């Protein structure tokens, strides 16, 4: 197998790639830590290092999952677009995902505050006798401690960078759904076997991204503190890894996730309502036409041709009745208990973890 084929296999199977990425991070980190004489690398530290390594891989897998499925999800909706609107939408989608100013803005907004806090601590230590920042090189001036500080910084900011990309993904999804609702005239397929008129895969995809975001955020809150605390438990620290400013930032991240999820669900519900109302109006219009024709035919039942027409009208009436029943089923499944349950289950841990961190700070 050629190197290019091996590369394509790994990049296509994003879970395999994320596992490889996590393994490389874990082994590199563990190797460098073993070279630090002042560091006691116990079982707890090993677990925390593994958790952070897995978190980086999980974030990477979430991002790859989005880009591997986003076009497939919307391609399934192609029959719902009238005429050539899907081609326009598909072109706009590719353009949006490849050239998005929101991408760079989101990364800046997420990463910059943490970078500013770290630089502030370094400046305070350097020029104003502030507390010692958590860098190994300040306690053990060797090549290995310097290398570990570099790797640790790369890991922490990679973690935040990937998190920023996931936030951007959720924002883009909300923007795409909003444009889908405002600019395009998609029609739901009442008889689609995938429920809610064929929009269920889209709703599940949105839920999957949001759920992965909150799982990631929970692990970020835990890992961002625990890793540094574990590494520097035997030296004097300036404070815990997560300080009030970082608590505020992480709280805003949770709030952003909640707002985006509610916005996305509202947009999907509006898409369903708009199409359902249109379909119902069409059904009632057909009911009226059929009813008027039946009244007209009843006055001439002796005519064989009218009898056949009446039979055809009854067949049409039965069809529209079944269609009306299907539409009402769609309305009954517009608010899916499973969606709400999954959202709550994945959201609560991040909120509870953050409250726990705030409580520990308050009790110091």
UniProtKB/TrEMBL annotation:
Domain of life: Archaea
Transmembrane segments: 12-33, 45-67, 103-123, 143-171, 202-221, 241-262
Record bears the keyword Transmembrane: yes
Keywords: Membrane, Transmembrane, Transmembrane helix
Annotated protein name in UniProt: Uncharacterized protein
Organism: Methanosarcina mazei S-6
């Amino acid at each position: 197998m050629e190197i290019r084929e091996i590369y394509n296999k790994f990049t296509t199977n994003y879970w395999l790639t994320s596992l490889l990425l996590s393994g490389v991070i874990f082994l590199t980190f563990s190797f460098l830590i073993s070279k630090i004489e002042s560091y006691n690398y116990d079982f707890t530290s090993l677990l925390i290092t593994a958790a952070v390594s897995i978190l980086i891989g999980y974030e990477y897998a979430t991002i790859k999952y989005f880009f591997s499925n986003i076009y497939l999800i919307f391609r399934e909706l192609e029959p719902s677009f009238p005429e050539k609107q899907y081609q326009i939408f598909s072109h706009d989608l590719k353009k949006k995902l490849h050239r998005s100013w929101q991408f760079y803005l989101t990364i800046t907004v997420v990463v910059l505050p943490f970078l500013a806090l770290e630089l502030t601590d370094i400046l305070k230590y350097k020029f104003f006798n502030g507390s010692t920042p958590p860098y190994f090189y300040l306690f053990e001036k060797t090549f290995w401690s310097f290398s570990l500080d570099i790797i640790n910084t790369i890991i922490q900011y990679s973690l935040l960078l990937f998190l920023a990309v996931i936030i951007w993904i959720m924002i883009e999804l909300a923007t795409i759904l909003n444009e889908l609702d405002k600019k395009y005239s998609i029609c739901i397929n009442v008889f689609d076997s995938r429920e809610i008129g064929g929009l269920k895969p889209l709703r599940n995809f949105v839920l999957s991204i949001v759920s992965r975001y909150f799982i990631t955020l929970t692990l970020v809150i835990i890992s961002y503190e625990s890793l540094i605390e574990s590494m520097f438990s035997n030296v004097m620290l300036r404070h815990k890894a997560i300080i009030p400013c970082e608590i505020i930032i992480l709280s805003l991240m949770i709030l952003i996730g909640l707002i985006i999820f509610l916005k996305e669900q509202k947009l999907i519900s509006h898409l369903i309502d708009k199409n359902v109302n249109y379909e119902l109006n069409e059904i009632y219009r057909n009911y009226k036409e059929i009813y008027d024709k039946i009244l007209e035919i009843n006055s001439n039942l002796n005519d064989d041709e009218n009898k056949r027409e009446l039979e055809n009208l009854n067949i049409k009436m039965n069809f529209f009745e079944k269609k009306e029943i299907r539409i009402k089923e769609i309305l009954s499944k517009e608010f899916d208990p499973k969606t709400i349950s999954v959202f709550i289950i994945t959201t609560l841990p991040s909120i509870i973890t953050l409250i726990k961190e705030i409580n520990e700070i308050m009790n110091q």
